[in-house]
Amino acid sequence: GSGDGQGQILQRFPEKDWEDNPFPQGIELFCQPSGWQLFPERNPPTFFVAVLTDINSERHYCACFTFWEAVESPQPQSHARNGEGEEEQEEASSPVQPAQLFAPKSLVLVSRLDHAEVFRNSLGLIYTIYVDGLSVSLETVIGNLLTCTIPITGGAQ
């Protein structure tokens, strides 16, 4: 009723925790710090990096790329009311269309390395493949990104 929701993890890579790098619990709370809400219009994509510190004082950089997807409103569209509380007249021939709402969807990359621009580019690539509906599976894209070599700063190209 209020428009507030709760985030949930739809898919993750790797599917099981690595022994030396467990999956951060509650990461969906960091994706939408203001809460998960539906909006009447599509917002532009956003990107930010949150730094989480674990119990061993190790930093985990959580890059979050959020975009908006259309969802059908679960409630019928209400009629507008004027200032006197009377319902405005509508044309009899115009059917009431369900309100279209937009829900946030976030892509998150968690790393112990602080490379915000690499994170932004990687998540942007995944987003582009997703919205363009390319026939490459998400698993393949993630696998290719995880196996690429990133040169060290000041090293040989």
Automatic annotation (TrEMBL):
<dbReference type="GO" id="GO:0031410">
    <property type="term" value="C:cytoplasmic vesicle"/>
</dbReference>
<feature type="domain" description="UDENN">
    <location>
        <begin position="1"/>
        <end position="157"/>
    </location>
</feature>
<protein>
    <submittedName>
        <fullName>MTMR5 protein</fullName>
    </submittedName>
</protein>
<dbReference type="InterPro" id="IPR037516">
    <property type="entry name" value="Tripartite_DENN"/>
</dbReference>
<dbReference type="InterPro" id="IPR051696">
    <property type="entry name" value="DENN_Domain_GEFs"/>
</dbReference>
<dbReference type="GO" id="GO:0005085">
    <property type="term" value="F:guanyl-nucleotide exchange factor activity"/>
</dbReference>
<dbReference type="Pfam" id="PF03456">
    <property type="entry name" value="uDENN"/>
</dbReference>
<dbReference type="InterPro" id="IPR005113">
    <property type="entry name" value="uDENN_dom"/>
</dbReference>
<feature type="region of interest" description="Disordered">
    <location>
        <begin position="73"/>
        <end position="96"/>
    </location>
</feature>
<dbReference type="GO" id="GO:0032483">
    <property type="term" value="P:regulation of Rab protein signal transduction"/>
</dbReference>
